[in-house]
Structure formats: C-alpha cells, structure tokens
Design brief:
Layout lengths: L1 H19 L8 E5 L4 E9 L3 E5 L9 E4 L3 E5 L5 E3 L14 E2 L16 H6 L2 E7 L14 E3 L5 E8 L4 E20 L4 E21 L5 E24 L4 E25 L4 E9 L4 E8 L2
Antiparallel strand pairs: 1-2, 1-5, 2-3, 3-4, 4-7, 5-6, 8-10, 8-16, 9-11, 10-11, 11-12, 12-13, 13-14, 14-15, 15-16
C-alpha cells in the first residue's frame, strides 16, 4: 500500500507539473529516476535495456541514453504513465547517462558496469600477430637453419571488471621449421634433418588500463599454458653403398609460461581499434586489431 501511495503521489505531481508548464514546454515527457531525480525530454525509444530521449530544448541533437534500471516511471505528454523499474528510492548512486553529444567515448559509464552477465556478452576481441617468434622450446638446434613458418597468431577475449581493470583469456597458434644438412667427404655420407614445431597456447590474464580515452596504455600480467608438438624427420644417405636410412621421431609436451607485457590501445571508433604490445610471452612484439562488442 505504501508503494502504491508513493507512486500515486509521484504521478499526480508529474501530471501537475506537466499541466503548469504546458505553455513553456511543448510535447515534453517527464522521466523520474529511481534516485528521485526528474528529467525533462522527448522520449524516442524504450527497450529492454535502455530509455532513449532527446533534450526538449534541443530536439535536433543526438539521443541521450539512460539505462532502463535507473528509470522509475515516465509520464508522457499525452498524460499517460509507464512504470519502467518498480523500485523507487533504493538506489542512491547516480549513474551518468550516455550523451551522444559528447565527443569523448567513455565505455565505462554504463549502468551495466558491474553486471557480469552483461560484461561477458559485451567484451572485446583482439586479434594479433607475433612479429618476433620467441616460443620455440626445442633444444639442440643451434646449428639448424630456421625457415619460413606460420607466424604466431593470438586471439584474445576481454571483459571489463571495472573502469580500469580487465580480465581475459587467449588462444594462440604458431609453427617453426628448422632444417639441417651436412656432407662428409671422408665417409661419403649425406645427412639431412627437418624439424617442424607446432605450438597451441591457452592463457589467462589480468590487465590494468593506466588511463582511458582514445589512447589507452596498459600493463598486463598472466600465464600461458603451451602444448608443443615437434616432428623430426631425417635421411642418412651412404653414397658409396647407395643406401638410404630414414628416421622419424616426435615429441610432445606442456609448459607454463609467464605473461608480462606493456602496450597501447588506439580506439579509432566505438567498435574498432588497433593495439601493440611488447614483453614476455610467446612472442616479443605483437600488432593487431580490436573489436568492441556493444
């Protein structure tokens, strides 16, 4: 009964205000937020997540967006009302609406900031290429020649924990190819060996954004779990005897690797960016692109 009484009083108040200001505010809707704040505007859209409206004094400017959970009730200019969130007076923290008039893109002012389910679905994907391979774990190949192989590629998925902290997981793939050949004049023996190394990586990390904005420097710390497969094939040809012997061996193994990197994100738009970083990991330097899911 108390809640119904409060709702009735608020609606009556809003309708009274709307009637008194009818001469000065044309076709104005009234938004009452759960913290009691009253906002005047022109409602354009109410969906499952947001309430979008225009400034009634600047109707031709871009939309202003409020999270639905911050809006208690809307009183429309046609004297109808709509309860959006059936909770009044329990939220004391004021969340800022996203205003498209602002030039700076701030990804962290959403009401869903601390909603894990929302953040999991609205993270960012990073696809990067390792420019300097540093992931080989094979010993005893100092005399082998390294040839062209598939460069290390990383795919990360990141979710925000709060304004500056981000958690993420990564997948990686890369390969190395080494060859060795020698010929002995004395023994008349020709030796050839080839080693193909393939790496699969799974990692987890935490990231700290030093600052937010268009340029976002960051520090990252985590752990990679690498699974390596190395195939060694070779031939030994005895020239005098016209005899050839083939060899084939394979090794597999797991290894944990510390991940410690520093880098910079460049947010070109709301859904796209570039990044580069350097440090400890499966590659020394990485360059890549970033896609924000919004």
């Amino acid at each position: 009964m108390k809640a119904l009484f409060i709702t009735f009083v608020l609606v009556l108040f809003v309708l009274t205000c709307s009637a008194q200001e009818k001469d000065t505010i044309v076709a104005t809707d009234v938004i009452i937020q759960v913290d009691g704040e009253i906002v005047y505007g022109i409602i354009e859209e109410v969906n499952k997540e947001e309430v979008k409206y225009r400034n009634n004094l600047l109707p031709h400017e871009p939309l202003i967006t409020l999270p639905r959970s911050l809006v208690y009730i809307i009183s429309y200019s046609n004297n109808t009302t709509q309860i959006i969130t059936p909770t009044f007076g329990k939220r004391k923290i004021r969340k800022t609406a996203f205003d498209e008039n602002k030039l700076e893109d701030n990804d962290y002012e959403d009401d869903e900031e601390n909603n894990l389910k929302y953040n999991l679905a609205h993270g960012s994907i990073k696809v990067g290429l390792g420019l300097t391979e540093d992931f080989s774990r094979i010993k005893g190949i100092e005399e082998f020649e390294k040839e062209e192989a598939f460069p290390l590629i990383h795919v990360d998925y990141q979710i925000k924990i709060n304004r500056l902290f981000i958690a993420g997981a990564s997948l990686g793939y890369g390969s190395n190819r080494y060859t060795y050949s020698s010929f002995s004049e004395y023994d008349q023996i020709d030796i050839y060996q080839e080693v193909n190394e393939t790496l699969y990586s799974l990692g987890a990390f935490a990231r700290y954004n030093i600052m937010s904005g268009f340029v976002r420097p960051y520090a990252l710390l985590g752990l990679n779990f690498n699974y390596t497969v190395a195939d060694n094939t070779g031939t030994i040809f005895f020239i005098d005897e016209s005899k050839k012997v083939s060899t084939n061996t394979s090794i597999k193994g797991f290894k944990a690797l510390l991940l410690a990197r520093a880098g910079v994100d460049f947010h070109i738009g709301k859904k796209f960016g570039l990044y580069t970083d350097i440090g400890l990991g499966n590659s020394l330097v990485q360059l890549g692109v970033k896609f924000m899911l919004k």
